[in-house]
Write a structure and sequence with these properties.
Blueprint (H helix, E strand, L loop, with lengths): L2 H12 L7 H12 L4 E4 L6 H10 L1 E2 L2 E5 L6 H5 E6 L4 E6 L6 E5 L6 H4 L3 H6 L1 E4 L2 E4 L5 E6 L12 H4 L4 E4 L5 H10 L13 E2 H12 L5 H16 L3 E3 L3 H17 L7 H12 L4 E2 L1 H4 L4 H12 L13
Parallel strand pairs: 1-9, 1-10, 2-11, 3-6, 6-9
Antiparallel strand pairs: 4-5, 7-8, 12-13
Length: 318
């Protein structure tokens, strides 16, 4: 099973539960193929957790759900060492993070200390407990959800942690027709109960290798760099996209090429990935950030204003 076949198999499986969210699903699958993590942000009841669970069930991988609350401790996530009196020695008990797919539900309800417990896990795919390093299983992915409308009892993610998420997406409300279909589908039972895995770990690892081999023309390196530099020069931005953000856009653009069954990246792949990859990495001036969706709007304005490379990318079809 190649990357395109894997993407379609997972999408078709998720469609058995989730209605009308193909674009969001594409980005979540792309993050998995790029060894990245996803932050899903939207109002309660929009299907964030259901989508994450449907995605996880579609993969033949270990899955753990962590409900983030103010009293959650970092050790609850990473694990602890305890003294075994029978053996007269310390033993390590792995935490919930020792799994392939982690659902960090309502991540902004936990304290900053607990949130930081995920930093090493997400960046290095390892956990260090009392000086001893433990590798996390592969593949490894964190899907975090958060509610943007509450300001009581929540702890907004700091910029350093937001930067660890390869992609940030919003669910959005369904259309009238989609809402009717949702009611019909969930009227008698929850379809996720009958969902089965369609992809193995080996398929995922193989697809990740395919993504790495997708061709990127050198002109597109300059195109990505121009977008990033434009965010740094923009008058409404305090801090623009970092080099890590540029690398993230490159990776996700490769994933978007795979979603479209291509072995090469085009400027359209980069434009499609720009908002989910770059918008959450910007720090805007207060006067600009007060407007809802200002970060996404700014990225769209920048990509529309930058000259697109005119190379005949289709000749690189493999």
């Amino acid at each position: 099973m190649n990357a395109f076949e894997m993407i379609n198999a997972v999408k078709e499986n998720i469609r058995k539960v989730i209605i009308g969210k193909d674009k969001v699903t594409d980005f979540i699958i792309t993050a998995l193929l790029c060894n990245g993590h996803v932050l899903i942000e939207d109002v309660p009841g929009s299907g964030k957790t259901m989508l994450a669970k449907s995605f996880a069930v579609s993969l033949d991988c270990d899955f753990k759900r962590i409900q983030f609350t103010p009293d959650l401790l970092p050790s609850d996530i990473t694990g602890i060492k305890y003294f075994n009196m029978k053996k007269s020695e310390f033993e390590f008990i792995p935490g919930s993070v020792f799994s392939n797919i982690i659902l960090a539900d309502e991540i902004n309800r936990a304290t900053p200390k607990t949130q930081s417990g995920l930093l090493e896990c997400m960046e290095e795919q390892q956990v260090t407990i009392e000086g001893e390093t433990h590798k996390l299983p592969a593949p490894f992915m964190v899907i975090a959800t958060q509610n943007p409308i509450e300001n009581m009892g929540v702890f907004p993610l700091p910029e350093a942690q937001l930067d660890r998420f390869l992609i940030k997406v919003d669910m959005g409300y369904p259309s009238y027709e989609e809402s009717v279909d949702i009611l019909d589908r969930f009227d008698k039972n929850n379809p996720i109960k009958n969902l089965k895995s369609v992809i193995s770990r080996e398929d995922i690892i193989k697809a990740q290798e395919e993504i790495n081999n997708i061709y990127v023309h050198k002109d597109l390196y300059g195109y990505i760099t121009s977008i990033a530099e434009a965010t740094r020069r923009n008058s409404g931005v305090i801090l623009g996209v970092s080099p890590r953000g540029c690398i993230a856009l490159l990776k996700v653009s490769k994933g978007m090429a795979a979603v479209n069954n291509r072995a090469y990246v085009t400027p359209d792949d980069i434009k499609a990935a720009a908002v989910p990859v770059m918008a959450h990495r910007l720090i805007l001036k207060t006067s600009v950030s007060l407007k809802k969706g200002a970060d996404s709007e700014l990225i769209n304005e920048i990509t529309d204003s930058i000259t697109v490379p005119t190379e005949d990318f289709d000749k690189y079809r493999l």
